[in-house]
Structures are given as structure tokens and as C-alpha cells.
TrEMBL record:
Source organism, top-level taxon: Bacteria
Pfam families the record matches: Glyoxalase
Positions in coiled-coil regions: none
Annotated protein name in UniProt: PhnB protein
């Protein structure tokens, strides 16, 4: 089965972001650094950067991220790309718990509350600049 999986790009904070997301969503986090593969970076001071990180949550979600060494072009997260965490009524408390963790240092917060269309809905931009949308419907 084909899956659509967010893959986030960071300059140097992929590890910190993935650890935040693990604390919000739970799950198993695997990280491979550029230093794990000799010759992957020009500057050995960047060997600790995340070449590939993958968070697999208990609910079956997968979120991936990587850092961008100075020798590679970097594209910062944009407002046009949003990580959406959605679910049904059985997911309401899990989504609330995730939001509580992600709120630390967040900006552009639209509180997670009942919306006119009947769902619980909210938004924020986390401390790493990644926009999130939350929607829990009936």
C-alpha cells in the first residue's frame, strides 16, 4: 500500500524537532547521521547532523526529517506546507496531548476548539517553524 509521509527539511535542528515530535506523538525514533557514512559531508563538524530521521508512532503515523549540511542547498519550511494531524472522536485526547507539547515555543496559534462545522480544529507553527493543523471530526 502506498503511503504519503511528511519529510521535513531543517538546517541543523532535525534531531531536536524529531525528539519534540516523539514527545508529542510517542513512538520509535531512528536517526542516522552524516557521520555514519564517511565522506557524506565536507565539514567534519557537521558529521552529527541528521542524514535521515524517522519517527513511527503507535497509531501508525510516520514522520521523517533531515538536516541540510552547508555544502547542500537548503529550503526552509514554508507556510504552504503544513503537517496535518487528524482523526475521529476516539483520537480527541491524543490530539490534545500532542498539541500541549507542540505549544511550547509555538507561534501563530489558533486554539484547538469546536469549529462551526462541528469538528475540533486548531493550528500552530511549532518552535522549529513547521506549521501544524489539527482536526478531529465526528
Amino acid at each position: 500500500m502506498t503511503r504519503l509521509t511528511p519529510y521535513l527539511s531543517f538546517r541543523t535542528e532535525a534531531r531536536e524537532a524529531l525528539e519534540l515530535y516523539r514527545s508529542a506523538l510517542g513512538g520509535n525514533l531512528e536517526i542516522t547521521t552524516f557521520g555514519d557514512f564517511p565522506g557524506m559531508v565536507d565539514d567534519e563538524a557537521e558529521a552529527h547532523l541528521v542524514m535521515h530521521g524517522q519517527l513511527d508512532t503507535p497509531g501508525g503515523l510516520t514522520l521523517m526529517a533531515a538536516d541540510t549540511p552547508s555544502s547542500m542547498p537548503y529550503a526552509a519550511p514554508s507556510g504552504g506546507v503544513t503537517v496535518a494531524l487528524t482523526g475521529g472522536p476516539e483520537d480527541l485526547e491524543d490530539v490534545r496531548r500532542a498539541i500541549e507539547v507542540l505549544l511550547d515555543g509555538a507561534t501563530d496559534v489558533l486554539p484547538f476548539e469546536p469549529a462551526p462545522w462541528g469538528d475540533h480544529y486548531g493550528q500552530l507553527t511549532d518552535r522549529h517553524g513547521v506549521p501544524w493543523m489539527f482536526d478531529v471530526g465526528p
